[in-house]
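Look at one such:
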Amino acid sequence: MLSGCKKVLITTSVYFCFLSLAIADYPLRPVPFNAVEINSDFWRPRLQTQRKTLVPFAFERTQPGVEHLQAARNFLAGEKTEGHRAHRFIDSDLYKVMEGAAYLLQLRQDPELESKLDDLADLISGAQEADGYLYPFVVHSHELYNVGHLYEAAIAYYQATGNKKLLNVAEKSAQHINKVFFTGDPKYNSGKPVRQAPGHQELELALVKLHRVTGKQLYLDMARKFLEIRGVTYVPDGEGVMSPTYAQQHAPVKNQNEAVGHAVRATYLYSAMADVGTLTGDTEYGNALDRIWGNITNTRMHITGGLGAVHGIEGFGPRYELPNADAFN
């Protein structure tokens, strides 16, 4: 993926990669984290503290996610799972910690940490159904958000170790989602493609990353399709979390002009729009992002850079609603 890369030293510890590619892409791309060695007196000790203290603590705090996946694996194996209480997004917290832990494997060889990640990859694989479906909660909330973070963890672990175990799980999941949402699966929606964008837009940017690491066009096409149908095939009609603006479903993304709704969902969406627009050469995404960027920086950004001042929706409020004592950000 990095053939033709000229490695350029930017600081004492960070390189960026200038690429000449036949396809559309960013003119400046960072090299993969596993190709960078950080030796500075400022950053390396902090990374070592992460490895010794923060990552073990984070794994401890995300143990409920492990138990959630264990229950799903046991259920698929025909074992009883009495007394287990499912949770909508606890798996994603575990996946985020796994991704961060994989980044730390670039510090040095760490058989203990690598073994833990490998065991978790086995667990996740065991919780995946034969057709690729992977979501222990069953009630459909934050579903594609969760698997998006799984894809990012899988990519980081593969880049750090060369182990494709979790990457294979991610690809199997993505191919299942493509079938359900865009080609049709007899098990869902009477076999008709669902064609509805996820409420939480983590999946789109994760699919772009999956495309980058595998070179498979399918995943970039999926990210583009999810962007294309947002605000088109389904527009909610309600208030609060069911308002049209909450998950940026009020208009096609290329027609959007201002930052609205849940701030995390919005910035995930904008990241995916930037990636898909760049990789496909579709300038309409960039035009929309220019408008949204101006709206954010001129009317909806705290001086700290915080976005999304309103607690109730964890998101953007009216223009210039930027309280100084209490904000979500």
